[in-house]
């Protein structure tokens, strides 16, 4: 039986590779799945085999070199494609405190002195060299020698913590692959590891990978789709409407919309949007409708920024907290659960539609044949130099939208009423266009991603 190490450098890949049918399908294909685990989540609780990495720490300079690489790649893409939108993916360097000032000064120095293709390659090679000199790397080498996997599959390509394990595998001649984790990662210069093979969501993402990284060859890429949407197609995850309403103390006479929150950096206006929607629903209910809002916050947003609006509109807004678990003191030690995947599916299934700021929830929604509305206006007193919605929707990944009608656009508070009423319809242009968008961004059928991944692994091993 061939042994596959599923590398979890952080918690983001757990949902895709531990909470889906991925392991079950692999086992039925005579593949042994072992989770190579650098998280605080105990996979043995899921009756899964794991090898725990106990010393997963980066070289002190790796974070600096990662930032330098990103700046150089973004600068190169801006020039190559004559498109200033890429500059929006860069954040100001942190200069708070002496330590950050030193880091930022070194970062600027390295950027200035490596503005060429050769310079970028030097930075990449130096990053890998730094990681090969860590205790983390040597721990990885020792574990690979002991367990002898046939393939190491990294669950996401965007974290520096993946570099040492992948470099360790390559040093021992073990085949490597990585999964491109999110639909917006490639334009953002977030490919931090180099592997033998790459798993992508769609042919659209395959073209992106070849566009941004021309040294990668088409034969190294497998179009698999992403497992993150598979739970929406499993009827066993869904409660009846009566069970769902009773469990979360919802008004059984009322129909709800789902507001899906972002983190405070992505959408600082979320409390404003929720209040504007709540005001609108209050007015609609006075006209004889009976609507409410289920509010699902971003799982790693523990701020109090929503408290006032929830209290003010407690008759309208029902917060349902994501079922993630805090397994440590850091934000990145908040881990997803199987229960939360089921909760998310039920929140969509039993509501009329989803409202949020430009997230991939549009695809989760259409999996349940529900439409999504994108909030598309700024706060009246906003400092538009720091943040604005135009910047958000100019990001490259929104160019994959087949038409502007794939979502409803809420361009001002006065648009909310008609948008909500349109979202109650079961067959709109937005339904059809969102389905097209989903098929562009993710391989069809969406519930077969794990099957396609296992097929790709078998091809690689053969």
Fold blueprint:
Layout: E1 2-8, H1 14-17, H2 22-28, E2 31-37, E3 49-52, H3 62-80, H4 97-112, H5 117-131, H6 135-147, E4 151-154, H7 163-171, E5 175-179, E6 197-200, H8 203-212, E7 221-223, H9 241-247, E8 255-260, H10 270-286, E9 291-296, H11 307-312, E10 317-319, E11 325-326, E12 334-335, H12 338-349, E13 353-356, H13 361-367, E14 371-375, H14 389-393, E15 408-410, H15 416-423, H16 429-441, H17 449-461
Parallel strand pairs: 1-2, 1-4, 2-3, 4-5, 5-6, 6-7, 8-9, 8-13, 9-10, 13-14, 14-15
Antiparallel strand pairs: 11-12
Helix pairs in contact: 3-4, 3-5, 6-7, 13-16
Mind explaining what this structure looks like?
This protein folds into 3 domains: 2-58 and 134-226 and 446-461, Rossmann fold (3-Layer(aba) Sandwich), CATH 3.40.50.2000; 62-130, no CATH class; 233-441, Glycogen Phosphorylase B (Rossmann fold, 3-Layer(aba) Sandwich). The chain has helices at residues 14-17, 22-28, 62-80, 97-112, 117-131, 135-147, 163-171, 203-212, 241-247, 270-286, 307-312, 338-349, 361-367, 389-393, 416-423, 429-441, 449-461, and strands at residues 2-8, 31-37, 49-52, 151-154, 175-179, 197-200, 221-223, 255-260, 291-296, 317-319, 325-326, 334-335, 353-356, 371-375, 408-410. The model has no long low-confidence stretch (mean pLDDT 96). The protein is globular, with a radius of gyration of 23 Å. The longest helix is centred in the N-terminal third of the chain and has 19 residues, at 62-80. A 7-stranded parallel β-sheet has the order 3-2-1-4-5-6-7, sandwiched between helices. Strands 10-9-8-13-14-15 form a 6-stranded parallel β-sheet. The chain is an alpha/beta fold. It is 39% helix and 14% strand. Helix 3 packs across helix 4 (97-112) and helix 6 (135-147) crosses helix 7. This is UDP-glycosyltransferase.
């Amino acid at each position: 039986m061939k042994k596959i190490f599923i590398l979890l450098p952080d918690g983001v890949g757990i949902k895709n590779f531990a909470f889906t049918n991925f392991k079950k399908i692999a086992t039925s294909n005579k593949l042994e799945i072992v989770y190579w685990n650098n998280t605080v989540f105990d996979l043995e609780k899921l009756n899964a085999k794991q090898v725990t990495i106990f010393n997963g720490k980066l070289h002190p300079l790796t974070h600096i070199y990662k930032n330098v690489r990103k700046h150089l790649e973004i600068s190169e893409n801006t020039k190559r494609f004559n498109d200033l939108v890429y500059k929006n993916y860069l954040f100001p360097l942190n200069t708070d405190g002496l330590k950050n000032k030193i880091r930022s000064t070194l970062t600027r120095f390295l950027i200035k002195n490596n503005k060429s293709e050769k310079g970028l390659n030097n930075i990449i090679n130096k990053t890998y060299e730094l990681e090969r000199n860590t205790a983390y790397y040597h721990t990885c080498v020792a574990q690979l020698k002991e367990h002898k996997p046939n393939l190491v599959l990294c669950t996401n390509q965007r974290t520096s913590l993946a570099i040492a394990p992948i470099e360790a595998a390559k040093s021992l001649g073990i085949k490597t692959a990585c999964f491109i984790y999110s639909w917006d990662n490639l334009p953002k210069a977030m490919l931090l590891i180099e592997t033998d093979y790459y798993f992508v969501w769609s042919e659209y993402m395959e073209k992106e990978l070849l566009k941004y990284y021309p040294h990668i060859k088409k034969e190294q890429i497998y179009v698999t789709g992403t497992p993150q949407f598979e739970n929406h197609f499993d009827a066993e995850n869904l409660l009846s409407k009566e069970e769902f309403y009773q469990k979360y103390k919802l008004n059984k006479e009322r129909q709800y919309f789902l507001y899906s929150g972002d983190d405070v950096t992505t959408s600082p206006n979320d409390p404003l949007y929720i209040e504007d929607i709540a005001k609108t629903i209050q007015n609609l209910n006075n006209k004889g409708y009976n609507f409410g809002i289920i509010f699902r916050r971003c799982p790693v947003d523990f701020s109090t920024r929503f408290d006032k609006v929830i209290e003010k509109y407690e008759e309208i807004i029902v917060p349902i907290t994501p079922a993630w678990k805090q397994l440590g003191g850091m934000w990145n030690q908040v881990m997803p659960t199987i229960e939360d995947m089921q909760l998310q599916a039920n929140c969509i299934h039993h509501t009329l539609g989803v409202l949020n700021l430009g997230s991939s929830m549009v695809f989760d929604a259409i999996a349940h044949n529900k439409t999504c509305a994108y909030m598309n206006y700024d706060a009246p007193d906003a400092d538009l130099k720091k943040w604005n919605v135009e910047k958000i929707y100019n990001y490259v990944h929104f160019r994959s939208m087949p038409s502007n009608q794939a979502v409803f656009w809420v361009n001002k508070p006065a648009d909310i009423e008609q948008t909500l009423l349109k979202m109650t319809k079961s067959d709109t242009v937005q339904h059809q266009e969102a389905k097209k968008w989903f098929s562009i961004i993710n391989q069809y059928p969406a519930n077969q991603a794990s099957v396609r991944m296992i097929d790709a692994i078998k091809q690689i091993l053969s």
